[in-house]
Design goal:
This is 2-dehydropantoate 2-reductase. By secondary structure, the chain is α/β, with parallel strands linked by helices. 46% of the residues lie in helices and 16% in strands. The chain folds into two domains: 6-199, 3-Layer(aba) Sandwich (Rossmann fold); 203-336, N-(1-d-carboxylethyl)-l-norvaline Dehydrogenase, domain 2 (Orthogonal Bundle), CATH 1.10.1040. It has helices at 14-23, 36-45, 83-90, 119-129, 179-188, 201-222, 226-231, 236-252, 261-269, 277-284, 290-304, 309-336; strands at residues 6-10, 29-33, 47-51, 54-58, 61-63, 73-76, 99-102, 144-149, 152-156, 159-162, 167-172, 195-197. It is globular, with a radius of gyration of 20 Å.
Length: 337
């Protein structure tokens, strides 16, 4: 009798919660890693998912760390700046055959050696993403790259709202054979096309990165939706310029098959009234993914000699807005007390 795969999802934000709700109905030994109020809610009440007018609650197994047994698949579903801590919570459950899938925005650490920037430059850029080399401790051959196209938000701890169809594109980080990715597909199932395989994850990652870089900073600065970013006459030129800059950088990194600017604009507009994950974090007072979506990109630009004036300006303004918001909130709290 074929055993159920052991699958662990570490990080229960919007994407982790969406994945957990999607995989809860499959034949798998599923465990979740969470903390704080989210962990307490999952343990006591389960995970609630709202989608298409329907509400479903799933009983789940959740703890502060992965189970004490080797897992078949581990999905790292936190923000890029959460990954080093998440790795510490799951590293004991990683075996020689474990497939580790980081589901994050931005340029992932495993992609850097493939961008033709030299080993010293790779180490320099990687220090932004992985300052203590925790991620680099994971064997690259076990990494399955992932790009997420999903519209979800956490309503409150343990509750997620899914606002449209979701798609996760996966492929081996190195090697090009997709041996691990096909194994993952066999375990997770293909019945609803939630997961799809790509033979060129470098291109997949950069195309999604382009969309994120062109929208996330502006969504915070303008506090507006994806659709308005491409339809507002004052904002649209900035989105276009960001897309042009990140396209030039991708081409300088010898990445083929990149979306033309017009195609990227169409995809962004199709996002409708969805608020980007960075805008959701900004409104909630959470840290923003400025390193993976901004600092890494500008560092790559310097190493490749590609000028990114619009991206650098918007990154700086977004960092200022985030710092000012946090400072204002702290001052307000001190004044009240």
């Amino acid at each position: 009798m074929k055993r159920e795969p052991r699958i662990c999802i570490a990080g229960m934000g919007a994407i982790g919660s969406l994945l957990a709700a999607s995989l809860s109905s499959r034949s798998a030994n599923l465990s979740l890693v969470a903390r704080g109020e989210t962990l307490r809610t999952l343990q006591q009440n389960g995970l609630t998912c709202r989608k298409g007018g329907q509400v479903a609650t799933f009983r789940v197994s959740a703890d502060v760390r992965a189970p004490d047994e080797i897992q078949d698949v581990i999905l790292l579903a936190g923000k890029a700046h959460h990954l080093p801590d998440l790795v510490q919570m799951i590293q004991h459950a990683v075996g020689p055959q474990t497939c580790v899938i980081p589901v994050v925005n931005g340029a992932p650490w495993w992609l850097l050696p493939q961008l033709g920037i030299g080993s010293k430059a790779v180490a320099s850029v990687n220090s932004i993403l992985d300052p203590e080399n925790r991620l680099s401790a994971l064997p690259l051959t076990s990494i399955v790259g992932c790009v997420a196209y999903a519209f979800a938000r956490v309503e409150k701890p343990g509750e997620v709202s899914v606002e449209g169809p979701s798609r996760f594109v996966i492929g081996d980080a190195v090697g090009g054979t997709n041996t691990h990715a096909r194994t993952v597909m066999g375990w997770l199932g293909e019945k609803d096309a939630l997961f799809q395989i790509s033979s060129d994850m470098k291109t997949e990652v950069w195309n999604k990165l382009s969309l994120n870089v062109a929208t996330n900073f502006l969504s915070v600065l303008c506090e507006t939706t994806l659709q308005e970013l491409v339809t507002d006459a004052a904002i649209r030129p900035l989105v276009t310029q960001c897309l042009s800059e990140i396209l030039m950088l991708g081409q300088a990194c010898s990445i083929e098959g990149l979306f033309p600017v017009t195609r990227s604009m169409e995809i962004i507009g199709a996002g409708g009234t969805h608020a980007t994950s960075m805008l959701q974090d900004f409104r909630a007072g959470r840290p923003l993914e400025l390193a993976a979506l901004g600092d890494v990109i500008t560092a790559l630009g310097r190493h490749k000699g590609v000028s990114l004036p619009t991206i650098e300006t918007l990154l700086g303004l977004t960092r200022y807005a985030s710092t000012r918001r946090n400072t204002t909130h702290t001052k307000g709290t001190l004044h009240v007390h």
